Amino acid sequence: MRPKREERAEGAQGVRGFLHDNSLTIAFGVGFVLTLAGQAVAGHADFNNQLAAEDLAPMSFGGYLLSSDFGVDVMENWQSEYLQFFLYIFGTVWLLQRGSPESKELHKAGTESDEDQRIGEHAKADSPRWASVGGARQAWYSRSLGVLMCALFLLSWFAQSVAGTAAYNEEHLRELQAPVSWFEYLGAADFWSRTLQNWQSELLAVGSMAVFAVYLRQRGSPESKPVGSPHGATGVEGG
Fold it and tell me: What percentage of the chain reaches a pLDDT higher than 70?
């Protein structure tokens, strides 16, 4: 029977190994939860300030978390982020930027050969099973990341429109104005103002990153070329 001290040591190493191997996901996950909580607290205070200015009773924190005002603020950010990744994933199949690590090498535009992608008869022993099966399953799996990002974008954009309609109508009712339908809200300036202000910022951020990474470096980051790489090196990432 093994000593408990050895078992505890191995357990601790296992936890440290897990944290080390998944530190990127864990750090961003914790950051997401903290910033979402901060947004909820700040948004609740701001919303109650607006109610006070209109001589209305304040809303509880729990009520605000379930409100359309909080929902639309969250969803409009989520949909723009998923749109960014969807466009970036699909766009970089064909679109190139000379000298950027965010771009493929200039001669690799397109979906690339089966050999380059290690699918079909070129799949390796450790390749995902659907990479070698062929047919519809392989075709779907070959595009599954982009399809998922597109689906998440559409779902969050739809959720934004529903929550936005409710929030818009609540404001109209407080001002004794007639509510609008979901279809009417889709054509309203409020919906497109919320949407486009996020889209333009995401497109600016991605485009800026692609260009800045041609000339600037961040040592140790896979999103940057190695510090000594020439400016014209394309599709080269750091390690």
Answer: 94
pTM of this structure: 0.85
pLDDT of residue 134: 81
Could you give the C-alpha distances from 180 to 3, 67, 191, in angstroms and in order?
70, 18, 12
Please tell me the distance from the alpha carbon of residue 80 to that of residue 23, in angstroms, as a whole number.
25
Residues 6+ apart with CB under 8 A from 87: 203, 206
Mean pLDDT on 39-63: 93
pLDDT of residue 8: 62
